[in-house]
Amino acid sequence: MTSLTAHGFPEQHVRARARNGTSEVFPPAGSYGAQLFGATIDELDEARLVPPVFMPQRLEKLIELGREPMHDDVDLTTGIGGFRAALPVYLSAFGSTRAGSGDLSVAASRQAARLGIPMVIGENMVPVHGYRRNGAGSAILARIREYMDACDDATGGVVVQQSTEDADCEVWHLIYTDPTVQPLLESGRLAFELKIGQGAKPGLGGMTVVGAQEAQRLAGRFAVREVLGEGGWLRCASPGTFTEEIVRQQLRFMRNNFPKARVWVKFHPGRDIAWAAATAWRAGADAVTVDGAEGGTGWAPRVFLDQVGLPLHECLRRIGRPEGCLLVSGRMWEGARAVRSLALGATAVGLGRAALLAVDEDPDEGLIRLVDCLALEARLLVSALGKYSVAALGPDDVWLPQSTQERLAEPVRIGAPA
Q: Which pLDDT score, from 0 to 100, does residue 136 have?
């Protein structure tokens, strides 16, 4: 055959699409549940933390303590969306996938509770797995019970996401009225999170690979497409339709109908993220979560993983000084990236794929050891910056290379688009 390849043209990908059809739009179906996904474009890791020479806060701490302060004197306790947390960290959402509804998620729930950090339960758990009040075998209640059994009386909390399909199943009502969950509710450690997208696939709903039998069972509740060839079927949740007014009305509904629960909102990394976050805070949200393009353990179309959504650093830049509690996720696993995010406006950072990997490595202690490493690094870094609380961090603690600064120098629109 005569070669038709031009310099730089991806011949092998074109031929694969011609050979395999729509299955090539996605990563291999066999990698679903066994591989983690998310963008690798990352301006946040280009930044450096820069301690000053003169450190007035260290002098203040010395006078307070009567001795030279050390990194052990850094206080990492943080208010996260109405909860008290031992660290500026939360467990990101795992939903209805095998990771979110199986042994890994239960082990992660137990370890998050022991750490005293909030846990988010992701979307579509009930539409896919059902809900059995006070009964054995309920995937979502198994996670909540495990968390409640391991947590203390002062720190952490449970956050339950809701998608369009969850709303059809009245998930929040089921949780809010379940006697099993009342101890969390009465102690102020239950929150509901309105989900408006995720970093792995901004603008789309959840996507899952299922077998033919599962596809047939879920066809009445989800869109099911046979686009993956022999590798499986594609189960798609609806993305939901939101405007500024719909978000305000939804938050008003949440506050009125579930007055004892905290109100969270999760946004994908959209170009109007500053406007969206401000809308949620002004409507009474206790926390706004932003999932950068680097985030999302979710399996997604290749073009979304590679080419859609703002990097987390750009989201932080556009939001600027946050009006309320700002939670961020996206490739969080160690102290420096977490501290940079906190200095640029985040209140806390979410562990997603890192938490899954840690729990997969050791279901009893893996996440605890991972977070212990992050906490030690965070204390060392915050102390090196001459500060002794997370709230004291600020943009002056972060430096970007000149090339990155120039690339990001364009004006940022804070309010509503014209």
A: 58
CATH 3.40.350.10 describes domain 26-391: no
Total length of the chain: 418
Q: How far apart are alpha carbons 344 and 256 in whole angstroms?
A: 33
Amino acid letter for position 134: N
Does 36 or 264 have the greater pLDDT score? 264
Supply the pLDDT for residue 97.
55
Closest C-alpha among 153, 162, 112, 126 to residue 356 = 112
pLDDT in tens, 324-351: 999 999 889 999 999 999 999 999 999 9
- β-partners of residue 83 are 80
Chain mean pLDDT for the chain: 87
Q: How far apart are CA 264 and CA 284, in angstroms?
A: 9
What is the pTM assigned to this prediction?
0.88
pLDDT at 413 over 60: no
Using N-to-C axis directions, what is the helix angle for 353-361 and 366-384, rounded to 10°? 130
Q: Give residue 221's pLDDT.
A: 77
- Burial 41-53, CB ≥16 within 10 A → b, else e: ebbbeebebeeee
- Report the alpha-carbon angle 382-393-318, nearest 5: 130
In whole angstroms, what separates CA 52 from the centre of its chain?
Answer: 32
Convert the pLDDT of each residue in 10-52 to its tens digit: 888 888 888 888 888 888 776 665 566 666 667 898 999 999 9
CA distances from 262 to 18, 85, 106 (A): 50, 15, 23
| Residue 278 CB neighbour total at 10 angstroms | 21
If you average pLDDT over residues 236-263, what whole number do you get? 94
